[in-house]
Amino acid sequence: MNQIVKPYNQKEGKKNQVGKMFDNIAPYYDFLNGFLSLGIDTIWRRKAIRSIQNRQAQTILDVATGTADMTLEINKQLQVSQIIGMDLSKEMLEIGKTKVQKKGLDKLIALEQGDSENLRYEDNTFDVVTVAFGVRNFENLEKGLAEIQRVLKPTGQLVVLEFSRPTIFPFKQLFNAYFKYILPLIGRVTSKDPKAYQYLYESVQAFPDGEDFLKVLNKTGFKSYQCRKLSLGICSIYSGFK
Question: What domains are defined for the chain?
C-alpha cells in the first residue's frame, strides 16, 4: 500500500512526472474522461458536491482541479463568493480557464498553478476543500492532507472523490480487466501518451482506499470522517472535518 507509483520512471520525483503527464494529455483529457467512464464521472462529481454539509459555504478550494469541471459544478450547486481551483499542470489549467471565461465566471472562479503539498494560502482560509481524482497523485499523501487540514477553517469540510477497488465478484474481475487492458489501450491510441493510462491503473491499485484512507484522514487530524462507495465500489466519496 505504501508503494510510490510514478507515470514514467523511478528516478525523477512523482510530482514533476505527474505534472508533465497531465500537460501531455491535457488536450484529450475531457474527451477521454467522458468516453472511458461513459459519462458517469459527471454524476460522481455532482454527488460529491452534494455531500458538502455547509450549503452556505462561501470560500472553496478545489485541489487538483484539472480542467475545472469540479469548480464549475460547485458553482452550479452552491452560491459561493469565491472558488479557487489549483493544479500542478499549466496546460490543464489553460483549458479550464477557457471554460470559465466562456461562462463569464472569471470574477468568481480563480484558477492557479500550485502544489498541494505546499499550499500558499493562510491557515483557516476555506469553508470547504474538494479534491476530485487528485489525492492519488499526491507525492506525499499525508503531507498533502495535512496542508488541506491547515487551510480549512475550524469545522471546515474536506470532500475527496477518488477511484477505489471494487470487491464484488465478478464485477471486481471485469473492472480490473477494463482498467488494466482496455482503458490503457484506448488512452494510448487517443492521447498519444502510452504511460498515462497505464499509470491510472497502477496508481488506483496502489492507493490506500476505503478504511485505509480513513486511517490517513485520522492521522492527519480530520474528524467525523466517512466513506461512501459509488457504482459498486469503482469510486468513493470521502468526507472529513477539521
Answer: 14-241 (3.40.50.150)
223 has which bridge partners? 241
For the stretch 45-94, pLDDT in tens is 999 999 999 999 999 999 999 999 999 999 999 999 999 999 999 999 99
Q: Exposed, middle or buried by CB within 10 Å (0-12, 13-18, 19+), for 168?
A: exposed
The whole model's pTM is what? 0.95
Q: Which residue has the cell 491510441?
A: 189
Burial 84-118, CB ≥16 within 10 A → b, else e: bbbbbbebbbebbbebbeeeebeeebebeebbbbe
Q: Which residues pair with 240 in a beta bridge?
A: 158
**Residues, the chain, total?**
242
CB 226 within 8 A of CB 206: no
Task: Please give the grid coordinates belonging to residue 92.
Answer: 490543464
